[in-house]
Amino acid sequence: MSPRKRSGEQLMVDRAEFTSYYGRPVIKAPSWSARDIAGYFFLGGLAGAGSVLAAGAQLTGRRRTAAAMKLSSVTAVSLSAAALVHDLGRPARFSHMLRVVKPTSPMSVGSWLLAAYGPAAGAAALSAVTGRAPRTGAAATGLAAALGPAVAAYTAVLAADTAVPAWHGAHRQLPYLFAASATAAASGMALVAAPRAENAPARWAAVLAAAGDTLAAMAAERDLGPLVAETWRQGRAGRLLRAARVLTLAGGAGAALLAGRGRPAAVASGLTLLAASACTRFGVFAAGVASAQDPKYVVVPQRARLDAGDRPQER
Which residues make Cβ contacts (< 8 Å) with residue 12, sequence separation at least 6? Predict the structure, then answer.
């Protein structure tokens, strides 16, 4: 075995090679159910962003919009929690996560976020429906709105904190993508549920969300690199994410140009944005599973990083 030279130094062993044992996955693919966890991602985003829109509607005197978004948020977070518990298998497992507070764990932080956000969203919705305890309802609305952005985006941190290449490689952009997607969903819900006379803020939010969603998705694919980005463009994930991009742009354009002209156009634009957000969450989830199942998405990037480290440093 002959030594190799590197920047005037001699290596006594050959460069290490990353391989996969008989082509088997290098990491364990997520065992989460796509229906439960991707649905949990989508519904949590809808709930969190919806609470922010509800608070804005209440502050600007759009009472029907505020009430509709509060009901939407409490329904979405309830379904989101049900999906999470269903995936966990036993309801007690969720309560077990509340035994400790671990700031470095996205799962622990997310569990406490849901535990605080859910009752706040419920109190806000109950006050809006019954007309009772307006001060308590206003305080609950403010608390839900304050926690809403974290509820909408923390699942991106949860996914990116894993070793799954298609998620971890996009850890910088994934929270922005999830936040923009959640805003698109909440804006879409507001266009569907709110009267046309009150939907101007939702239309503007939809346009901004569509732009942010598109830019964040493009940035994520760029940072993943040409190899791992394949998981975002091929197979089931590719079909879902392409559909998400088309639906996002169509929904944003509809919100900007048509939703202010009539109720049917507003509803159609809103439903398009809701579908776009769901496709984004399910598409990103599918891309992560695909990247974990194929060892090349772990092995080849590791080898590329090793090769980059073997190059002499420029002076």
Answer: 3
**313 near 274, Cβ under 8 Å?**
no
The gap between the terminal CA atoms of the chain, to the nearest Å, is 30
Question: CB count, 10 Å around CB of 59?
Answer: 13
Coil/strand/helix, residue 195 = coil
DSSP state of 227: H
- Mean pLDDT for all residues in the chain: 86
Alpha carbon distance 53, 118 (integer Å) = 16
Predicted confidence (pLDDT) per residue in 164-179, tens digit: 999 999 999 999 999 9
Contact between 20 and 153 (Cβ < 8 Å) = no
| SS3 of residue 110 by DSSP | helix
Query: pLDDT tens for residues 82-91?
Result: 898 888 777 7
Cα–Cα distance measured from residue 292 to residue 169, given in angstroms and rounded to the nearest whole number: 12
Alpha-carbon distance of 37 to 65, in angstroms, equals 29
Question: How many Å apart are CA 100 and CA 309, to the nearest integer?
Answer: 40
Distant-in-sequence, close-in-space partners of 125: CB < 8 Å, separation ≥ 6: 67, 70, 71, 73, 74
The CA distance from 107 to 159, in Å, is: 10
Closest CA to 181 of 42, 13, 31: 42
Phi, psi of 98 (to 5 degrees): -95, 5
C-alpha 44/C-alpha 149 separation (Å) is 10
